[in-house]
Specification:
Strand content: 15-25%
Number of helices: 13
Largest sheet: 7 strands, mixed
Radius of gyration: 21 Å
Number of strands: 9
Strand order of the largest sheet: 4-3-2-5-6-9-7
Structural class: alpha/beta
Helix content: 25-40%
Length: about 300
């Protein structure tokens, strides 16, 4: 087995060899602690019958741990400068394929069909670039990819929002969007000291596991997320005021909104942060007939 990429000394050697400079615009922070990487991969519970999808492999620190544990690894890398670096650092592993692409623009389902055919157990495992963490997660979930779940590192503040419960400060529309698709839990927190360059904030690894049955069945998923986003538009406002100001013609349709709230047994003076995902689901279904045009936008 080759020596770990993720040590301070080896990382510096690789960066120096390729004259690599970090691009802040790409949110590049490389891990330099093999123990942290080992723990991340252990949460994914991979076997040689599993495949892993990685986003932003950097110089291959996490990628090699995935390659040692999974049958196949596909990693999306946007930075062309890293392609020759990865070809070098990952040369001991024949089960890794790098896709030079922005994952937000990529057809991930197509890549899976092409490169991971035959693998029934697929996990997304990644140290996500902080500046696009949420769009990446939402894209992967909305596309309903055939994956078991995700183990992903992100800014701790975002991890807190994703895993938050109702009536807490961190709870919001992001919590609902993620928890609708997956069970979310913080697997571990990661100090800023194990990265080069060091980010300004601590990180956390969250584990997302696909629900066996959805926490709520709704008529229109997109509309559920529209209602939840609208309800959190101004956190200090009541749910009635937020829905009136955020939904099209909401002020003229106040009576319809009040009727839906009553039908869902929700006090109109409550704030959005107190509602469970089940309550949002019931409310969205009752509002849908009167606000159908939103779901078709």
């Amino acid at each position: 087995m080759s020596k770990d990429i993720a040590t301070p000394k080896r990382t510096q050697e690789i960066l120096k060899k390729y004259g690599f400079s970090f691009k802040k615009s790409l949110g590049q922070n490389f891990l330099i602690d093999p123990n942290v990487l080992h723990n991340i991969v252990s949460h994914a519970k991979l076997t040689k019958e599993s495949a892993a999808i990685e986003i932003g492999p950097g110089i291959g620190a996490l990628t090699e741990h995935l390659a040692r544990n999974a049958g196949q690894v596909v990693a999306f890398e946007i930075d062309q400068r890293l392609l020759p670096v990865l070809e070098d650092t990952l040369s001991p592993y024949d089960n890794v394929e790098i896709v030079h692409s922005d994952v937000l623009k990529a057809n991930v389902a197509e890549v899976m069909q092409d490169k991971l055919a035959g693998f029934k157990d697929v996990m997304v495992v990644a140290n996500l670039p902080y500046y696009v963490t949420t769009p990446i997660l939402i894209k992967l979930l909305m596309e309903k990819l055939p994956i078991r779940g995700m183990v992903v590192m992100m800014q701790k503040e975002v991890a807190d929002r994703i895993t938050a419960s109702p009536s807490t400060k961190a709870y919001g529309s992001l919590s609902i969007a993620i928890q609708y698709y997956m069970k979310a839990e913080i697997a571990m927190t990661v100090p800023k000291t194990v990265f080069i360059p060091q980010p300004n904030v601590d990180s956390a690894v969250i584990k997302l596991t696909r629900h066996e049955t959805a926490p709520v069945n709704v008529l229109d998923e997109d509309f559920l997320f529209t209602v939840s986003r609208s309800s959190f538009a101004q956190r200090r406002k009541t749910i009635l005021n937020n829905l009136q100001s955020q939904l099209p013609h909401g002020k003229e349709k106040k009576d319809l909104i009040l009727a839906a709230l009553e039908g869902a047994n929700i006090d109109p003076t409550r704030r959005g942060e107190t509602l469970t995902i089940q309550e949002f689901g019931k409310l969205a279904d009752l509002l849908l007939p009167d606000f159908k045009e939103i779901s078709t936008l």
